[in-house]
Amino acid sequence: MKNDALGIVEARNNLGVLVARAAHRHEATRIRRSASERAVLISEEEYEELLRLRREREAADVVTAIAAAERGEVKLAGYDSAAALYADLDLPAPGERS
């Protein structure tokens, strides 16, 4: 993948070519809209692989956390209701406005 990001207008003007490169050559393209808004165009196959890897990492993290709890290394919190959990996390309960 190139280090330089294309501007959004240049990417838009070359979108067909960029999609073909991503899909057939697995060439990723960085695209910037502004200094803080950046994205990467990749093939669907690579995207699915990233999702698979993320799920595997998250599952491994859960297994590690469960093992730590079983060893008594982590104190688990119990909740009587979903509302209590949301309140503890300082989040609005489903259906409530934030």
TrEMBL record:
InterPro entries: Antitoxin_Phd/YefM, YefM-like_sf
Family statement: Belongs to the phD/YefM antitoxin family.
Summary of the function given for this chain in its UniProt record: Antitoxin component of a type II toxin-antitoxin (TA) system.
Pfam families assigned to the protein according to its UniProt record, in alphabetical order: PhdYeFM_antitox
Name of the protein this chain belongs to: Antitoxin
Gene3D superfamilies membership: YefM-like domain (3.40.1620.10)
Domain of life: Bacteria
